[in-house]
Specification:
Blueprint (H helix, E strand, L loop, with lengths): L1 E9 L4 E4 L2 E4 L3 H6 L8 E11 L6 H13 L6 E5 L5 H11 E2 L5 E4 L12 H12 L7 E5 L2 E4 L3 E3 L8 E3 L6 E4 L2 E4 L11 E2 L7 E5 L9 H7 L2 E6 L7 H13 L4 E6 L12 H10 L2 E2 L5 H11 L10 H5 L16
Parallel strand pairs: 1-4, 1-5, 5-7, 7-8, 15-16, 16-17, 17-18
Antiparallel strand pairs: 2-3, 6-14, 8-9, 9-12, 10-11, 12-13
The chain binds aspartic acid.
The site of aspartic acid has 10 residues, from loops.
């Protein structure tokens, strides 16, 4: 039987009521004990690395997850990470960049209701995740949640309460899991390269969400303090007139600050070349853009590419547009 390691980190799945509301209290062994059926098809073990509401997840916790997977990589055939849903999409994206080419699956899951409740999605999600992690055809980093298997770079939490909390953005589900059966939609091609672990993220990344009439006041501070500014723009992407002059000025003053244009629109991504408001600034400042990558993937990829992801020193643009775990379909050849 396959040996699968449960790495528990907290989240609703592990939560119980406290005086001040739900907080994680159920440990890894207890979580596993709620779903005895798992032992019918694999040999599970459990380890607790933190017990956090995922609101409190930080890059150092991602590093801990990577170190845990790496430390136990030879011993186990697959990994299931139990995690809060609120920042699960960020963690799944981060682990997609930090653990690459893993022939052993890393499955991230959680629940909208605690595992100790009678009516809960936690038991099904955990069972599905172990089933997927123990399957011969599984590999890489993904979320298994609500019967869907989503590539680690493509997930977004789109519902705050329903069981059907996650969607795969602009990419098909890799598979579905129902009644103990996996139905695959995307064939898993074996990785050509060996597994690679990265540890360090650059956390000096700031996300600016545009609103109509946004003032340029904070921009000077952001350019001075951060290595990368992600602009969550409107539509296919552009810089509004209210901040454009200051933006150009700061771009000259801080040429090493990486600027990435993303979009507030949930589907279909950016294309700055379409409108004057985006085209000119892209041409003149060489801004990077998200294209079809999710915001969560862009944030994690920026942290990685300005951290260990740029070990070969090939430059952010090369690293940013390189496809990792299905994150981008756009062909970099089209980039001007
Ligand atoms: N606040 C919780 C968390 O992200 C929500 C959940 O797990 O569903 O940890």
């Amino acid at each position: 039987m396959k040996k699968i390691l449960l790495i528990a980190t907290g989240g609703t799945i592990a939560s119980k009521k406290s005086e001040n509301g739900l907080c994680p209290q159920i440990d890894a062994e207890e979580i596993l004990a709620y779903v005895p059926k798992i032992r019918e098809f694999c040999e599970p073990s459990a380890i607790q690395i933190c017990n956090l509401d995922s609101t409190n997840m930080e890059p150092r916790h991602w590093k801990l997850m990577v170190e845990t997977v790496q430390a136990h990589y030879e011993e186990y055939d697959g990994f299931v990470i139990a995690h809060g849903t609120d920042t699960m999409a960020y963690t799944a994206a981060a682990l997609s960049y930090l653990i690459q080419n893993s022939a052993k699956p890393v499955v991230i899951t959680g629940a909208q209701k605690s595992i100790d409740l009678e009516i809960t999605d936690a038991k099904t999600n955990l069972l599905d995740s172990f089933l997927y992690a123990a399957d011969d055809a599984s590999q890489g980093v993904q979320i298994v949640f609500g019967g869907k298997v989503i590539a680690g770079t493509r997930a977004k939490k789109i519902r705050s309460k329903s069981y059907n909390a996650f969607e795969s953005i602009d990419y098909p589900y890799l598979a579905t899991v129902q009644d103990m059966r996996i139905l695959r939609y995307i064939p898993m091609l074996p990785y050509k390269e060996p597994v690679r672990f990265f540890k360090n993220m650059n956390e000096k990344i700031f996300l600016v969400k545009l609103v109509p009439g946004i003032s340029p006041k904070a921009l000077g501070f952001l350019f001075a303090e951060y290595d990368c500014i992600i602009v969550e723009s409107f539509g296919v992407g552009g810089i509004p007139a209210s901040i454009a002059d200051e933006f150009y000025r700061l771009y000259q003053e801080f040429p090493n600050t990486v600027v990435i244009m993303a979009t507030q629109v949930a589907h279909e991504g950016s294309d700055m070349t379409v409108y004057e408001v985006g085209n000119r600034i892209k041409r003149e400042c060489g801004i990077l853009e998200s294209y079809d990558m999710t915001l969560e993937a862009v944030v994690a990829k920026a942290m990685w590419m300005l951290g260990d992801g740029n070990a070969e020193n090939i430059g952010p643009k090369e690293v940013f547009y390189r496809r990792v775990n299905y994150d981008i379909i756009f062909e970099p050849g089209r980039e001007g």
